[in-house]
Design brief:
about 180 residues, alpha+beta, SH3 type barrels, 3 domains
Length: about 180
């Protein structure tokens, strides 16, 4: 057994429920803290429950969250409508492209031929009719094909440059 001298101090921890009469929860909490802080015997304290502060803030945050969810649903439904309109316009653009391609001469090429050349990184020769009546014959690799705008990006293998052509400028695509 160890005998403690009168000078040694020990701390003891108590878990208590205290009822304080006041007009609001905030004022009761203030009274409790004042009582506990006025004593030089209380070394540390923690209030585990009973604090009802921030109810207005919680209600406002919940309201904002509800409004945000509702607005998100509205934006989501409008985005779905927009996507369906975009899909319809893309289908119309593909139909126009198909008609334009079929209207060409017997040496016509299809978007499938272009996509196949892109995927196989195939060397092709484009015969391009530029404005002003000049004709170009370009050995190239097709980099990109944008069906909606009917643009073709190609890499000229001799000049090592990238060019963009509209499909209506291209007379022939050989080497497919």
């Amino acid at each position: 057994m160890t005998n403690k001298t009168s000078r040694e101090r020990s701390g003891y921890l108590f878990n208590v429920d205290i009822l304080i009469d006041d007009s609001t929860n905030a004022q009761a909490l203030q009274s409790l803290l004042a009582l506990l802080n006025d004593s030089d015997k209380v070394v540390d304290l923690r209030v585990n429950s009973g604090i009802e502060l921030g109810k207005i803030i919680d209600a406002a945050l919940a309201s904002l969250k509800t409004n945000y969810v509702e607005k998100s649903k509205v934006h989501l439904s409008s985005a779905k409508n927009f996507q369906s309109k975009v899909a319809a316009s893309e289908a119309a653009a593909k139909a126009v492209l198909k008609q334009a391609v079929q209207a060409k001469s017997a040496s016509y090429f299809t978007p499938d031929d272009i996509r196949d050349s892109i995927s196989k990184n195939r060397l092709v020769r484009l015969t391009v009719n530029k404005s002003g009546g000049s004709r170009l014959s370009i050995p190239c690799r097709i980099l990109n094909f944008d069906e909606s705008s009917q643009l073709l990006n190609v890499y000229h293998v001799d000049e090592k440059q990238v060019y963009s052509f509209s499909l209506n400028e291209i007379d022939e695509l050989t080497g497919q």
